[in-house]
Design brief:
Elements (H helix, E strand, L loop, with lengths): L2 H27 L3 E6 L2 E2 L3 E3 L5 E2 L1 H13 L2 E6 L5 H6 L5 E2 L13 E2 L4 E10 L14 E5 L3 H7 L5 H9 L2 E5 L2 H10 L4 E5 H11 L3 E3 L5 E5 L2 E2 L4 H17 L1 H8 L55 H37 L4 H16 L2 H16 L7 H27 L3 H9 L4 H31 L11 H12 L3 H27 L5
Parallel strand pairs: 1-5, 1-6, 9-10, 9-11
Antiparallel strand pairs: 2-3, 3-4, 6-14, 7-14, 8-11, 8-12, 8-13
Helix pairs in contact: 2-8, 10-11, 10-13, 10-16, 10-17, 11-13, 12-13, 13-15, 14-15, 15-17, 16-17
Length: 525
């Protein structure tokens, strides 16, 4: 073996060792992901701040837990109605967002309670309502699937609350607190019931309009909810929280968010709600941190859990990322659904009955069931049917697949109507002139069909622009979902109006473009 060959072999060996070492280093640097599912419209526990970042009391606790365990925190906003499916499928590690334990004790594996929460009632200052009994004959609003609703209509409702609920003129349910306050401010409702932490946040931005009643509807405890049986992860988080409590970090974070009076995490809790023993913590290496200076001073005397108003330009800037997501859904749906609709239309008009009926059934299902339900089926089907866990990126693919399959059914029927509107005499004339069936379709039938179907296709495209907001069902953050999150943080409807202006401008441009195309095809008369 000559020297040159030896040098090559040595170089290859060094390269392999380097690659191996780099791989080991890269592997060593990989961190376990801790994915927190939360409602991004629930300040001060989890919401979007003025910088467009997700923050809140619970998220800051989760970040500290991750820092101490060398985990990577993934903040994942979820549709609250789908929280159980998100947890069961493994899409999130836990639900940590002011999550009420009461009434859900058997449904999850819980940490010990860390916040004592109360349900309170907010009214207008000029309403004259000062006691709960004054709500008789009034309209009270609560959020869907909330502790306030359970306090008034749940199985464990007190006799006093049962009597209060019966005395109301109406108990209305809304999707979010912005809608609730809009009804309250406009006089369409008389009161709103909600968590005291959320109420304090809302009042920090509207204290000149509303007041909180002193009486409480109920009290409950917040905990971190894990998938049933996931005790290992629960114990790791619990131990870290207790270490944070021991060294003063937990209290410091609670003080920062103005929740000192609500926290209830205790070293005295020796068992979980399911009866399992709480692990002991080793305090020998823990040091108690010195009290920090008032952190509120650097935010103009306000705690972190208060409203910080944004101007129109800042709101528009924050909505920018959501606008791009909306555009992506719109363009990709059109790219896939329009040609797929043509294929479905061809199958629908097939002379082979089995194919015709398959197309009919497909169109019937797609048009006869809600698009939101179809999106949920596309996203969660891999787990519930095959036990497959899907990556987070699959949410976007599921949105595009669901939208494309849905709109293909509508386009198919529009195409079919356009094709069948062409007189048979034109097909016969083309056949006499020697055109094949494919040539007849693409050279004679198709151009005339396009001209005739443009108005209904335009309507569907405009509907698609607005339907992109349904992507929130899969916790995919497009523009309208982002607008709702900003609106919750700002306690204002301004972000929703900005989003509405965007939708209008977008649809105006779509309608103008389609009108131009229609004029270009005027020679097909």
């Amino acid at each position: 073996m000559n020297k040159r060959t030896g040098r090559w072999i040595l170089a290859v060996i060094c390269l392999l060792i380097g690659v191996s070492f780099a791989g080991q280093t890269s592997h060593a640097k990989e961190k376990q992901e801790f994915i927190v599912g939360f409602d991004a419209e629930f300040p001060p526990y989890g919401y979007m701040d003025e910088d467009g970042e997700y923050t809140g009391f619970d998220l800051e606790l989760a970040q500290e837990v991750c820092n101490r365990n060398e985990w990577k925190l993934v903040k994942r906003p979820i549709a609250w109605e789908s929280k159980d499916s998100e947890l069961d499928s493994g899409a999130i590690s836990c639900i940590w967002n002011g999550f009420t334990m009461n009434g859900r004790e058997e449904e999850y594996t819980w940490s010990t309670p860390y916040v004592d929460n109360s349900q309170v009632v907010i009214v207008r200052k000029d309403s004259g309502i000062r006691e709960l009994t004054d709500l008789k004959g009034k309209i009270l609003i609560v959020q869907n699937d909330s502790s306030a609703l359970a306090a008034l209509t749940g199985e464990d409702t007190s006799e006093e609350n049962q009597a209060l609920a019966k005395s109301l003129k109406e108990l209305q349910q809304v999707a979010d607190y912005n809608s609730a306050f809009m009804n309250l401010e406009s006089g369409m409702a008389d009161a709103v019931a909600m968590d005291i932490g959320v109420a304090n946040y809302q009042l920090s931005g509207k204290e000149d309009l509303f007041v909180m009643l002193e009486a409480r509807l109920s009290s409950e405890e917040y905990g971190v909810g894990f998938k049933k049986g996931n005790t290992e992860l629960r114990d790791q988080v619990q131990v870290t929280l207790l270490e944070m409590l021991y060294d003063g970090t937990f209290e410091s974070i609670a003080k920062k968010w103005g929740l000192t009076d609500s926290v209830c995490l205790s070293m005295e809790d020796k068992t979980y709600i399911d009866g399992a023993a709480v692990p002991e913590i080793d305090t020998s290496e823990l040091t108690i941190s010195a009290p920090e200076q008032e952190e509120e001073e650097n935010t103009e005397g306000k705690s972190a859990g208060t409203v910080k108003k944004l101007n129109l330009a800042e709101i528009t800037r924050q909505l920018g990322k959501g606008m791009l997501a909306t555009l992506a859904i719109f363009l990709l749906t059109l790219l896939f659904s329009m040609p797929l609709g043509l294929l479905v239309a061809a199958v629908r008009m097939s002379r082979i009955k089995i194919f015709e009926w398959i197309a009919k059934i497909y169109i019937s299902i797609m048009r006869g069931t809600p698009l939101m339900l179809q999106l949920l089926v596309v996203f969660f089907a891999p787990y519930y049917l095959f036990g497959m866990s899907t990556p987070y990126s699959y949410r976007f693919y599921a949105v595009i697949i669901g939208f494309s399959l849905n709109y293909a059914a509508y386009f198919a029927e529009i195409y079919r109507a356009g094709i069948q509107s062409i007189p048979n005499g034109q097909r016969e004339a083309a056949q006499i002139l020697g055109y094949s069936r494919i040539q007849t379709f693409f050279r004679i039938i198709f151009p005339q069909m396009v001209k005739r179907i443009l108005p209904p296709v335009t309507n569907e495209i405009i509907t698609l622009v607005k339907d992109t907001s349904l992507a929130f069902a899969l916790a995919y953050t497009e523009m309208f979902t982002l607008a709702k999150q900003i609106a919750a943080a700002q306690t204002s409807l301004m972000p929703l109006f900005v989003a509405g202006v965007f939708y209008y401008i977008f649809n105006f441009l779509v309608a103008y473009l389609m009108e131009c195309i229609e004029k270009k095809l005027d020679y097909y008369r």
